[in-house]
From TrEMBL:
Keywords annotated in UniProt: DNA damage
InterPro entries xrefs: DNA/RNA_pol_sf (IPR043502), SulA_CellDiv_inhibitor (IPR050356), UmuC (IPR001126)
Signal sequence region: none
A Pfam cross-reference name: IMS
SUPFAM superfamilies, per database record: DNA/RNA polymerases (SSF56672)
Ranges where the UmuC domain occurs: 29-150
The name this protein goes by in its record: DNA polymerase Y family protein
Length: 512
């Protein structure tokens, strides 16, 4: 068996709060909100019961004086770039996992300082003197164990080689960060990683698939042992050259989107995923700027584009000697090359499909279709808030996280209760709702029908209910959007949801 990979993880607690508020903690009670949900909060806010994942109104119920700010992930990244540069000066090879969390191989720096504890103490001292006294450092076998160690109460924690399983055993299964599997484990009465690792590995694989087996290995502290990287196929490398040098980070990131999709398609055809990637940027003077990036699981196309953007921002910051906004232009880039440096079997990273176990073909097939149709060609649906059916559906390109523009958990007076129509017309389609004398049924200001509905879409009306008023944005010029809904069942056993606005009827949806 290969020796475990010793890594050093640096964790900066509550980094999004520091990026938003500036300066070292303590900070006043403050929380960051995205989609009306708390995504980060200060330690002083947690003392009053505020937690990440809470709805905004619940958090403010715990602390009425809570300051609430919008979350800006790009700000977190920009603020962390100078920290990465500082670490790089004292420990070359540092890799960003996410803003506030960095990782590097422990071997080189520990040899330089004469031991792992001495290396952690040196880094903690350097960062403390630079204004980051809150940093926590963990050294262990593999990234997962090292990150758990870094979250300990002391400035640094060293887990001796070969003792990761014993170190992780008392931790709750929630540290695996997989809601589906940890929820099932809790229902089975398995609450700690030690209890999880007590299960036989073949039984875990049979029940949870390869993804569950991977989590089982993590819980046993074996996440570094299988890291004998397969040599990447040279055909997995993709590059793009620009006719004229590009200077804006967003402009270049947009231009490499198709290249990133092509890398994912090549990986999919080879039935592998990328766990480490090297990105080479070539400027208009012929200089090449390279950097390797690690991922705790595996990269997707959006991750690759993000790494290109982060590398461009770091390059611009280094040349300007000060943090800059990502939209600011800098020296032109003429080519970008993306090289998978380490790959792994795709089956180890695929979640179950509809509860039927792993299906490694899912990601490959969808990625290939998306590459052929374009970034917007394959989308996933998420539920958003709203009064109209079309407002409650948000379509997001495959591989990106869906962020509903409106909170689906908030009350929406006038919205349609369950069950909802199975078919939604977007945009609504015009439809005729006629009375017995073939005249169009109308609705007056008081919500009263002029006549009973008799025909709809060429069929006879068997039953109907309503109308119900829907009126939103009353304060807007022109009185906002208003109308009246009606449910109609015709003699062909079709149930319609229609609404009347102005002088016309529109079909909003149809029940099946």
């Amino acid at each position: 068996m290969n020796a475990p990979l010793r890594v050093l993880v640096l964790w900066f607690p509550d980094w999004p709060m520091r990026a938003a508020l500036g300066g070292a903690p303590p900070h006043p009670p403050t929380a960051l909100v995205q989609a009306n949900t708390i995504v980060a909060c200060t330690a002083s806010a947690r003392e009053h019961g505020v937690r990440t994942g809470q709805r905004r109104r619940v958090a403010q119920g715990h602390l009425s004086s809570l300051q609430v700010l919008p979350h800006d992930p790009a700000r977190d990244e920009r603020a962390f770039l100078p920290v990465l540069q500082l670490i790089e000066k004292h420990a070359p090879g540092v890799t960003l996992l996410r803003p506030g969390l960095a990782i590097l191989r422990a071997r080189g720096i520990s040899r330089y300082h004469g031991g792992e504890a001495e290396a952690a103490a040196s880094l903690a001292t350097v960062l403390g003197e630079a204004g980051f006294p809150e940093v926590r450092i963990g050294i262990a076998d593999g990234p997962f164990t090292a990150e758990i160690a870094a979250r300990g109460p002391t400035p640094w924690t060293v887990v001796p080689s070969g003792t990761a399983r014993e170190f992780l055993a008392p931790y709750p299964v929630q540290v695996l960060r997989d809601e589906q599997i940890t929820g099932l484990l809790l229902r089975l009465g398995i609450r700690t990683l030690g209890e999880f690792t007590a299960l036989a590995a073949p039984d875990v694989r049979d029940r949870f698939g390869e993804h569950g087996a991977r989590l089982h290995a993590l819980a046993a502290g074996a996440d570094s042992r299988p890291l004998t990287p397969r040599p990447p196929d040279p055909e997995l490398v993709r590059s793009v050259e620009f006719d004229s040098p590009l200077g804006g980070a967003d402009q270049i990131a947009f231009a490499v989107r198709q290249t990133a999709d092509a890398v994912m398609l090549a990986l999919g055809e080879a039935s592998v995923v990328c766990t480490e990637v090297r990105i080479d940027l070539t400027d208009d003077n012929g200089a090449v700027f390279s950097r390797s990036w690690l991922h705790p699981t595996c990269f997707d196309a959006s991750d690759l584009v993000d790494r290109v953007r982060w590398q461009l921002e770091a390059l611009a910051t280094q040349s300007a000697k000060e943090p800059i906004d990502e939209a600011r232009a800098f020296g032109g880039i003429t080519a970008v090359r993306i090289t998978p440096a380490a790959v792994d079997d795709a089956a180890h990273h695929q979640p179950g499909l509809f509860g039927s176990g792993t299906d490694e073909r899912l990601h490959h097939a969808v990625s290939r279709v998306q590459t052929m149709l374009g970034h917007q060609g394959v989308v996933t649906a998420a539920i958003s808030g709203g009064r109209w059916l079309a407002d409650r559906q948000v379509l997001t390109p495959w591989g990106e996280r869906a962020v509903p523009p409106r909170d689906p958990g908030s009350p929406w007076p006038g919205s349609l209760p369950d069950p909802l129509p199975a078919e939604v017309f977007h945009p609504p389609r015009p439809i005729g709702v006629l009375a017995a004398d073939e005249t169009t049924v109308s609705v007056d200001e008081r919500g009263t029908l002029s006549q009973d509905p008799a025909r709809i879409e060429g069929a006879s009306v068997q039953a109907w209910a309503g109308p119900w008023p829907v009126h939103e944005r009353r304060w807007a010029a022109g009185g906002g959007k208003r109308g009246h809904r009606l449910q109609i069942v015709d003699d062909q056993d079709r149930a319609w949801l229609v609404f009347h606005t102005g002088e016309r009827w529109w079909a909003e949806g149809r029940y099946r």
